[in-house]
Amino acid sequence: MLRAVRLNNFVKFRNDCMFSFREGGAYFFVGENGSEKSSVLEGIRRCLSRDANTSFSGFPDESKPSYIICEYEMPDGCLLSDCKKVFTSFLYIPDTTSTYKYAKNVLLVKKDEVFIEFIERENDAYLMKHRTCSFQDEEEQNIRKEIFKYLPLCTKDSDSSDNNITTLLAFLKKLLYAKREDTVASETADKHSEVENVLSSLENSLVFTFGQRSLGPLLWSKSKLIAIPKRDKNYRTARGKCEIINYFLSNSNSYDTQKEDKIFRLLTNQANYVFYLKKDGLVSVKLDGDGVEVLKLSEGILEAKYLSLLLACKEHFTILLQEPDRGMHPQMIKLIRDIVLPEVKDKTTIIVFHNPIIISSWCIPRTYKFYKIRDGDKLISKMYKIPRLLASEDYVCILFARNVIFVEGQSDFFFVKAIIEHIMTQPNDKSTQRVLNLALSGETKNTQQFLTFLASLHVVKLSGEKNKHKWKYVSRELGLSGWFLLDRDAVVQVQTVDTCNLAADTIAWTKNSKETSLSTFMFQPKMEDGLVSQDLKSRYVDFVKKNKWLEARQCLEEEGVFVWRSGNLEDVFIDIVKNFEWADETTKIWSSNQTLLDDNVSDENIRESIVSAFNLCDKDSDITQFILFLERTQRVGLGSNIQK
Question: OLD protein-like TOPRIM domain: which residues (predicted)?
Fold first, then answer.
């Protein structure tokens, strides 16, 4: 079974990445498109197979070593179980003095022995020649001891792993560039045969499914491919493409039939599907005794069948699944999540998926989040430190996002989503053009780039400003570009003190290093005989209206925080209309903090409010400044948690 993977300077992963599968069972890879989830699975496959593509996958920095190392434990009952651990790897060590830069190697670790074999690549072609090192002489015995000492530690998630990797690479480099032997001694040949057997056993114990990347033959109702003369051919082609199902039905001893039937019937709500082979060796299906063409089955039923077969198989102990839930109903996915996968403990199962439904609280510590950074590199974050509230349906979407803005309340949530939708769907509307021109005047305007950014922006409720520190931490751990929209009282607070020696308008900049760098401006009022002076309110208002507020806002925006200067969302609208003769009536409407949540307020009402605000606001209004804030976040990365 696969127990660990470690890689560095591999494909797009410039930094060290560690995957630990020590407990077995199910693990999850999530992340946005293009975050190289599949490349890790492909690296695992290449480390085992002699027949797989032997080209090296590239690396971000040619001047540094590149490697992917996989650690396996031989399963109990295996004929080769005396070999407790196997490490397989692709390795590149830069050296301008040698043509042998690439190697694929296998290391067998027994109780008191380590054996290494290289497959080398010279220039641009793999020679597929073997060099084995059985550590016969005294020098090689010393190397064997060091490899035996360091290698098991190289795939452990610990502080000392980096030093162990460095030491191991030094030894491997020495072996890799050692004098080549044209012949292989007989005792070494025996070891070579053992390596081949071990590798073959591991390769047979791993199965890898590919995500569907192409369209089927039935594209639309006008297609000539579905004409009656071609119907029978289409039916047979569909049966032939069910390779996983055909294989297991042809090899019934290779899986636990009772376990498979239990899983499948659970996922299909006890529906009476029967899969069997006809005389032509291809699968056919009956439902309640009546024949059903495979081509007419829903994709979710076929996915449930092949998933139940793989999870019940006896010969595969490491299963790598790409997008196994593309056609499943939500109820099926929840059953897989809550009942099926928690019981799969005799295999290491790695699942790449894009459906947030599959995430639950027990999945969080077993999930790896893949994400991009600004220069195109990729990173990975294990989520064992992430709060389990992330499994809530309100928040799980951020696992698949790159850009997130957290808003304080439900009204802000509705309003910000409506602003984004209006700008994206009505970019040429007069009101949209007006507010964009106001917000972006003097800026390097790229409307299309801004619209692309808005399309990637997820809006998430904080459910109270007190949660801002928690979500700042989550954003950082997940590698998200996370920003915050808060009411004024979340960051500008009145603080009474016991001394009267403070200036009337002192602003204290405070940071809590244990939580986050989300800042709070403390307004410290002047004291008179131990009591707050009577003009506190007027001086507080002066603060938020004068230049010191602009200084405060600039500091906050550098941290990715935007604050309604007016107070809250409803105050923003009141300030926009205050200079108009009909302001009193509008103020009455917006005076409640629940205005947008009223049952009588429709989506159309909210859109009309946005158009009105866009038409009436000026350059200094909160609405305009908020749009400018969004534009600046995508252009210069305000407050971004992404490593640069």
Answer: 399-454
Give the phi and the psi of residue 72 in degrees, each rounded to 5.
-120, 150
Instruction: Identify the burial level of 182 via C-beta atoms within 10 angstroms of its C-beta, where 0-12 means exposed, 13-18 middle and 19 or more buried.
Output: exposed
Kindly tell me the burial class for residue 428, based on how many C-beta atoms sit within 10 Å of its own C-beta (0-12, 13-18, 19 or more): exposed
444's tokens: 């390097």
pLDDT number for residue 570: 79
Neighbours of 246 (CB within 10 A): 17
- Residue among 102, 85, 90 nearest 148 (CA): 85
CA distance readout (Å), 69 to 5, 22, 87, 256, 368: 6, 15, 7, 32, 18
Residues 424-460 pLDDT 10s: 998 889 999 998 888 876 555 677 888 888 888 999 9
Structure-token pair, residue 323: 């997008």
pLDDT at 377 over 70: no
CB 615 within 8 A of CB 438: no
The single-letter DSSP state of residue 553 is H
Q: Which of 162, 130, 164, 159 is nearest to 147 (CA)?
A: 164
**Contact call for residues 378 and 57 (beta carbons, < 8 A):** no
Q: Which two tokens stand for residue 26?
A: 């199910």
Residue 371 class from Cβ within 10 Å (0-12 exposed, 13-18 middle, 19+ buried)? buried
Contact at 8 Å (CB) between 90 and 99?
no
Other Cβ atoms within 10 Å of 30 Cβ, number: 25
Say how far apart CA 284 and CA 291 lie, in whole Å: 8
Neighbours of 296 (CB within 10 A): 9
* Residues facing 30 on adjacent strands: 369
Alpha carbon 243 to chain centroid, angstroms:
30
Cβ pair 37, 85 in contact under 8 A? no
Residue 20: CB atoms within 10 Å: 18
Question: Which of these, 349, 472, 344, 373, lies nearest to 17 by C-alpha position?
Answer: 373
Q: Exposure pattern of 563-573 as b/e (b: 16+ CB <10 Å)?
A: bbbbbbbbbbb
Answer for the pair 381, 477: CB distance below 8 angstroms, yes or no: yes
CA distance 232 to 226: 10
pTM of the model: 0.77
d(C-alpha 379, C-alpha 391), whole Å: 22
Tokens of 379: 């990173």
| pLDDT, tens digit, 9 for 90 and up, residues 478-517 | 777 788 998 887 776 655 443 333 333 333 333 333 344 4
**pLDDT tens column, 133-156:** 555 555 555 555 555 555 555 555
pLDDT in tens, 271-327: 899 999 998 889 999 999 899 999 888 888 999 999 999 999 998 899 998 888 778
More confident residue, 355 or 245: 245
- The two three-digit tokens of residue 269, written as one number: 């709500």
Yes or no: say if 38 and 57 are a contact pair by the CB < 8 Å rule.
Answer: no
Q: Are 5 and 68 in contact (CB under 8 A)?
A: yes
| Residue 325 token pair | 């839930």
Give the closest residue to 423 by CA, choosing from 619, 614, 560.
614
Highest mean pLDDT among 96-100, 424-428, 439-443, 565-569: 424-428
Query: Are residues 86 and 109 in contact, defined by beta-carbon separation less than 8 angstroms?
Result: yes
- Closest by alpha carbon to 466, among 514, 408, 516? 408
